[in-house]
Design a protein that fits this description.
145 residues, mainly alpha, 2 helices, 92% helix, rod-shaped
């Protein structure tokens, strides 16, 4: 029966890889959420600009224009803050990606070792089986003849 001496280490590395995959997925989800927020706010800016054009023609006062200007300024500031958070999240995402790649590499290294040891074990078993079969055949011919 084949037994890999480092099986426990391989299992630990597999668990670490799953944890790092989860961390990477969460960071990616956060990044996607931030990008979605930016897109929504920019869409709101576009719709507000379209609405202000029709409001210019119907409203005799400047109050709606002032409110619109303040609204646009606030949304642009929010978009700028979100873009900064996106840049920070991209750095975090890159770190998580590197950690994931490194953990995959470490796990794969052990898997290759395991595969090589298993091949050597199977070759050893085949040699032993062949030797046993040769001995049985030799004994058969000795006692038969």
């Amino acid at each position: 029966m084949f037994h890999f001496r480092l099986q426990h280490v391989l299992e630990v590395r597999e668990r670490l890889e799953r944890l790092r995959q989860k961390d990477y997925s969460l960071a990616l989800l956060e990044w996607q959420t931030l990008v979605g927020e930016i897109d929504r706010r920019q869409g709101t800016l576009v719709r507000a600009s379209e609405n202000i054009d029709s409001l210019k023609q119907t409203s005799p006062t400047t109050l709606p224009l002032q409110l619109h200007t303040n609204f646009r300024r606030r949304l642009k500031a929010e978009v700028a803050r979100l873009r900064e958070r996106v840049r920070e999240q991209e750095q975090i995402l890159e770190v998580k990606r590197r950690e994931l790649v490194e953990s995959r590499r470490a796990r794969r290294t052990l898997e290759i070792l395991k595969d090589k040891q298993q091949v050597r074990y199977e070759q050893r078993q085949k040699r032993l089986e062949r030797a046993t079969m040769d001995e049985v055949a030799a004994n058969y011919h000795t006692f038969r003849g």
